[in-house]
Amino acid sequence: MLFRCGSRTCSVHVSHAPPFPHAPVFSLDDPFDPSRIPTYPPVIMALSTQAELSFWDSWWRSNEIAAHILTSRLSVSACSQLPISNPLAGLQHRTAHEVFGHLCHLFGGGDYTSSSALKTQLCNLHYGTHVVEYVTQWCAGVAQLNNSGYPFTLQESLEAFVDHLPDMDHKPMKDLVYQSLNHSDSELPSFESILERVITTDTHIYCNHPYAA
Fold this sequence. Notes:
By secondary structure, the protein is mainly alpha-helical. It has 9 helices and no strands. It folds into 2 domains: 8-107, no CATH class; 112-208, no CATH class. It has helices at residues 8-11, 50-71, 76-80, 96-107, 112-123, 131-148, 154-163, 167-180, 191-208. It starts with 7 loop residues before the first helix and ends in a 5-residue tail after the last helix.
């Protein structure tokens, strides 16, 4: 979801505030990103200026886009579980942040428990007969953990990913990864490069032995 709300105009509508009023929203390991600074519905009154009214209208239009991204692929039953924050105001006055919070509460995907379960699932995932399925699940899982902010280092992900690859086909690459784990983080291969190498190796195997795949 957060990936789909990647535009700063939309992502600020689902970003979380820092845990303390004056806490920074970035650190040395997590550089400043203005898209992660949350915004809130502007307050207007009967005597508000035209500029204030225009900003109010622009904010809610952007909020509607973010809310649509969050709900457009949901089933009817899932949508029916999303409460209206203010029935008198109508659906357009339910913020995207409220929608995102309800979705996380109902279905998980952003909380610590769900992320921890996903990490365990990835680490226990076994390489089957279809390499694309294995790679796809790892790629999606790592992206989801990164988006949720759950701690899953590159070193951990590389080691867990190659652990369940068959030695017969991928031993040289596995040895490369295991050796790199003894060096600094800057010398580690990127996760994407290892995924690509697995796909390439599997493609070569299939081309040389099409009936064995």
